[in-house]
Amino acid sequence: MATEEAAKPAPLPPYPEMILAAIEALNEKSGSNKSAISKHIEGKYGDMPPTHGSLLTAHLARMKESGELIFLKNNYFRADAPDAPPKRGRGRPPKDPNAPPKTPTTSPRPRGRPPKAKDPEAEADKPPKKPKTAPAPAPAADGSTPAKRGRGRPPKVRPAEPTAA
Description:
Layout: H1 2-7, H2 15-26, H3 34-45, H4 52-66, E1 69-72, E2 75-78, H5 120-125
Antiparallel strand pairs: 1-2
């Protein structure tokens, strides 16, 4: 009976404990990536379950969401570590109410294309512009006043059938 207990491997500690211990043991300044954490756990605890990779990924994600770990540049840090970067929220940070109001600065050049120079001599050389008029409608083939055309392709005109007399 004693040999059966000796052959049985010791139960593994919970994944969050193993992950935090691995990050502490690795003690990297820029944080520890997932593969380094995985190799450290496999080296320390030996035979791992076949789902070790997915379990590790799930636990790292859960610890990141709960705030136990900080994830930055593909590396994990302990949230309470002194050299961990400050945690930032998503999106634009709120305005500082104590900041002095921003004074509008005038730019040295205005934006956009500069307007053309008004040269009175150049305008005197040009002939005056003619006012635009609508073109006169062409007369209809049958001599009547032309009808306004509708939109789209006009219907096909069939030739007149000769009447039997």
